[in-house]
Each structure stands twice: as C-alpha cells, then as structure tokens.
Q: What sequence folds into this?
C-alpha cells in the first residue's frame, strides 16, 4: 500500500530526500477557520420543527436571532468549537504540530477559545479584535438521537482579513487545512485562497473540508473550482459530496470526485468512510467505542486523525482508521473536543 | 413518620389551616448565593500537589491567581454553577417554585449564568452589575477519582449588598436557602442575616448549607451562632459538621448538632446520609445510578431534592431519599447542573 508524505507523495519514506535538504517545516498542519465557542443544549425534534431548523445541518443567524434562539432553549454547556479549530486541536492532542488561524474578539468567550486551543498544545497567535462583533457562538441543539443541529452567529470570526494571515506560519507547515464554512465570508474566502497559493508554492499540500451540505449548496461552483484547482485532500460526508456534484447517489458522487484531487476521504456516519486515491479505494470500518451521545465534532475529529497520519507519511488505510477512531471517540461524549486522551486511544486500538 | 410543612411543622398535612388563611406564598424556596460560572478541567493529583491545593475543598483566589491557574490547566468545559444556584436550579427542575438572588456582572459569563438558571424555570431578577469585577468563576479540577477541587474567583458575586435584596421575594417563599460560602464576603453576610430575619418574621423557615470544611473553619463561631439562632434546616457533609464542632468523630458531631436546629441533613458520600430531627434519626442509603464521573454539585443536588420534598410536606425519610437520588444523578455526569430530567428520575425511582 502506498505511503504518503506531503513533500514527496507516492514515494516510500526510504526514498525521501534527507530532512536537511527539505524546506524547514516546523509544523505538520496549519488550519484556517471560524473561531467559535459552542453552546450545547438538549432539544427535541419538535423544537427543530418549530424553529424551521433542518436536522444535522448548520444555519447562519445574526446576533438578534442568536439571542432569541438562546432565550428559548434550556441550560447550556459551553465549550470551544469551530470546525477547523476542533481538527487542529485534535491533531495537537494526538501529538502533531498544529497551528490555528482565526479571529476572536477580546471578550470572555474569546479568552475561553484561546485558552482551550493553546491548552492542547496548538499554536494560536491571531490577534483578538479589540472592537466590532463579539466572539462567534454556535448554538448546538443535540436531539435524543445524538444528532446535532447548529445555529451559528459568526461574530468576530468573519473579520479575518487576508492581511491578518501570518503567511510565514503557513509556509512553516506541511499542510494547510481549510474549512468550507469560511466561504460564507467574502474576506475570509480571500484570505483562504491567498493562503492556499502560498502553501502550494512553498511545497506543501492543501486540505479542504466541505463542512455542510447547505454550505456546499451556497458555494457549489466556487467549491468545484477549488477542488479541481487547489485541493490535495478533500474531506466530505455523504450529503456534502452529493451536494457538490448534485446527485442523490453516493457512488456517483464518489466516481465524480476521483482524480479531481489527490485524496478524497468521504465519511458515511455508521457506515464508516471511503478513502479514494487514483484508482484505489479504501473502505474504512467505523469504530464503536461506547454509547452514541452527541455527533458534534465527528467530521472534525475524523479529519484530525486522518491528517495526523497523513503528515506522518502513513498509508492511506491507516490514515482512514486514525480518522475513524478519533471520530468514534468524540461521538461518545458531549461536545467536539475530546475529553480523554487521543494518544492513549490510538495506542490501545491501533498500536 | 412525621410529615413536615414549613408553615406548620410536625403536623400532618390534613391538620394544616386551609391555604386561603395562610400568608400568600408564591414560591417554595428562595436562595441567596454566589452567582458563578464553573470551568471544569481534568487534572491529576500531582497538579493539585504542585499548586498546593487540598483535594475536595474550595480555595478562594484573586483574579490574577485565577488567570495564572487557568493558564496552567487543560481545556475546559463551562457551565453555570454556584452552590445555592445549583440547588435552586435543581428545585426548579424537579418542579418546585424557586428563585435565586445573587450578583453577576453584565458580561458574557453573566449572560450564561442568567440564561441557564432562568432556562430551568427558576426566577432570577438580581440586576447585573454594570461595572466592577467580572462575573465570578470557579475553576474545578476533576481528578481521575471523580473528586472535585475548586478555586473560586468571587468577582461580581461579592458585591451583593443588603440593599440589593428583594425582601418581597423572600417573604413570598416558604423557605430561604443560604450557602455558607457567602460568609466569605462581609456585605453578603449582612444581606444574608437580614434575609433570614425577614423570612422568620414572615412565617417561613431558613436552611443553611455549610458549604466547605475550610469555610467552616474560617467562620466557625459565626456559623455556630447562626445554627443555634437562625437555622431550621442544616445541610453539612461529614468534614463540615466535624469542623463545626471540632471533632474527628462523625457520631460525636451528629450528637452535637441534634436539637440545635429543627432538622440536620448530614451527607456522607458513598455511605449515604443521616437525617436528624429531635430524637429521631433516619439513615438514607445512597443511589448508585451509573459510573462515578464528577462529584461537582453532589451536595447542592442533595439539598435540592431534600428541600423539594420538604417544602411539599413530605416525611423526612422521603426528603432524604429525594436528596440522595438527585445527588446520585449529578455525580454520573460532568458539572453540577443535571443534564437529564430529575422529574423523570423521581418518577422512575421514587414513584
């Protein structure tokens, strides 16, 4: 099975040039995303229906809508979130060298976000905004079937501008990870493309998560272009990849994406995932580690495990199993940041 | 077994005066306490030792200490807390009519605290401070043995002054619940005594939780006087009641407290609790509802269950079982606010 390295794909590790002659890379992955604090609340299906929310998806709300919705829900549990941020935190927890770029406001929630991502060892140096909207919040409604439905107030996170990007940080990493959600902000999208170009020109790779089927729907053409032109590793779940290629058939969508990027990792909840590369396809079984509690962060942690393996040159099947294992852990708890040691989990299950 | 009512103790409910002739009481319990947001983090015994923290207790820290400590811990999970606030939230979740008095700042954490206590149906109308210290935070270090060790920055909560007290609210309740932690603030203590006097003169009862052995140690004389002169229902755990009467023997402490207040409910972790009233003693078995995860809120939820029964005129053994059941639930999850329905729990276990 092929072993991968972002600097020399398709070559077994033994054929790599000695480290000294490669560009100095001090990070495995740098990620750009919305810096968000999650508010987890319990809700039932009737609540989703009453508020016109579509289960399992993410809806954008403005501050007034966010406050009205918050006033109508039960008590919450607050935890740092944000899709790419969860992935970078997961990579750091696994022992990878990770940095996150995203914008908070200098308020209490911004303090929580900054603390939590640094506390797991990820680098996070984007200066907090001193004025403007408050730190982004995502109200996550967890239904009894453990599904999560999200309402996001983007707040300060949409004010990430290209000039905020620390391009040196991007150059220091083997891989740049981008969340599709950023496409909802014109400024963040520009920052995103600029970073992808810098990463490619510095010899690294670009990974993208499609984030949400509705998000794909809003930006389909743009995402298709991006996948064809800039993306090495694509993450998508079944509804996202089907939305990207406007088909109801997973198999048809999988055939469509083949060859458009180096690797596509397609997740299918309890059916596990499928990793595609050229003509190869690696079906990955899911890990069931306990009772299903809350699916928040499942996709983010899949990407974390996968990219941790990928940037270490692991074979693609093992990358998929690492992703599957991390996703399997996070769905057994509330919230998207693992409460138990991912390192120990990997040692126990994947040696 | 004796049935209790705050307005006519020792009389079976059938002998109570018709409701119409009693003073109009629209609330079961009003509580005064520190309004706190908890930050739950995982820690090991070595961390406690390195920071000079005594397991299972609460230490007060100033803002700078709180920030230094926060910077040294792992990622957190934020949830509304505060001892009396947890109890009042629990009473409301059980279906009791509950109000809380305590002070937050008008900041993001204050918004979270206010939302969460109102979201379970408790009344909370204390105006938020517009200036001064930020909303109180408690860093709760949860060790692998599920014990919690707390470091509290009291922030805005210590600025609760007697003039902030809504005495009409106090008069509307059958019972006033006070947390011993308030004794650490001179102003709050004065507010506390004023409220107790108003409650007594309006025909209601006063309950006190001793909160923490070190807190008892700081204010022993004052607490003894309070128990003898103002308290109808006393809640204490083993180390607190032993500290109050400066003895190593639980039995000796239990003998000391007998008759000094109407009812003493003494909790003993996995040994259950002992409810004392006059010459009677009711040993209450603990409920083991699942794996022990985090003992945060165990005492607070015991008081919630107990007072919910007590203000409904239930017999003392059932009050104890209600307390024991609610405490048994909260220790199976992270944080002091039950994530599952206490009403359903009572229906399932105590009919």
A:
């Amino acid at each position: 099975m092929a072993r991968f390295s972002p600097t020399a794909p398709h070559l077994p590790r033994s054929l790599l040039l000695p480290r000294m002659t490669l560009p100095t890379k001090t990070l495995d992955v740098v990620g750009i995303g919305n810096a968000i604090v999650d508010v987890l609340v319990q809700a039932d299906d009737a609540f989703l229906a009453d508020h016109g929310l579509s289960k399992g998806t993410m809806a954008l709300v403005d501050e007034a809508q966010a406050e009205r919705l918050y006033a109508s829900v039960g008590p919450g549990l607050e935890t740092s979130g944000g899709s790419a941020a969860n992935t970078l935190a997961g990579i750091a927890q696994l022992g990878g060298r990770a940095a996150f770029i995203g914008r908070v406001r200098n308020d209490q929630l911004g303090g929580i976000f900054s603390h939590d991502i640094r506390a797991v060892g990820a680098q996070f140096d984007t200066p907090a905004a001193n004025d403007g909207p408050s730190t982004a919040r995502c109200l996550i409604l967890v239904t009894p079937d453990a599904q999560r439905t999200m309402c996001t107030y983007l707040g300060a996170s949409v004010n990430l501008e290209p000039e905020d990007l620390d391009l040196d940080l991007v150059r220091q990493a083997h891989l740049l990870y981008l969340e599709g959600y950023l496409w909802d902000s014109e400024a963040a999208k520009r920052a995103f493309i600029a970073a992808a170009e810098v990463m490619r020109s510095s010899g690294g790779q670009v990974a993208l998560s499609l984030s949400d089927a509705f998000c794909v729907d809003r930006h389909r053409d743009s995402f298709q272009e991006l996948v064809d032109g800039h993306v090495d590793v694509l993450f998508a779940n079944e509804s996202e990849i089907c939305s990207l290629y406007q088909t109801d058939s997973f198999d048809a969508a999988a055939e469509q994406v083949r060859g458009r990027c180096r690797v596509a990792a397609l997740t299918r909840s309890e059916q596990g995932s499928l990793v595609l590369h050229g003509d190869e396809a690696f079906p990955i079984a899911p890990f069931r580690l306990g009772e299903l509690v809350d699916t928040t962060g499942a996709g983010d942690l899949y990407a974390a495990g996968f990219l941790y393996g990928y940037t270490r040159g692991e074979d693609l099947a093992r990358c998929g199993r690492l992703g599957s294992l991390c996703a399997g852990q996070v769905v057994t708890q509330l919230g998207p940041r693992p409460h138990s040691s991912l390192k120990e989990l990997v040692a126990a299950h994947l040696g």
